[in-house]
Request: fold
Amino acid sequence: MSGFRDPHWKVLHEIEHLQDEHLALTLAVLREQFRKQVVQALDVKFSDLKHFHAGLSAKRLIEREAHYNQLNFRNVLDAFPIWLTKLSDVSRVLPLERELFDLVIIDEATQCDPASVIPALQRAKRAVFAG
Reply:
């Protein structure tokens, strides 16, 4: 660290450098934690992810439900905690489970009819309507 008698600009420059290093190390830790979470999800919960993928690929509703009934969807959410989907796909992609998500955000809400929003609201603890 700089001495006490160094010019202020030099001390400020060193502080900025240390802040940049701190940010880089924080990002590295976050990336590693995320990587570990995904690896664990793939190792431990692979069966649930496989059933979810098969359910998504199923052409018939009865096949999709059969795959969804064989999995713990919470394990899928552990691997993929954030979802983006069209309202028209919610029923096709997500199991009908109350409060599956902490928050559902309905973007362009003025463009939605109320009936199309109900499947998403059924799966949410809370909702935000935007636009």
In short: The chain has a mean pLDDT of 86. The longest strand covers residues 101-106.
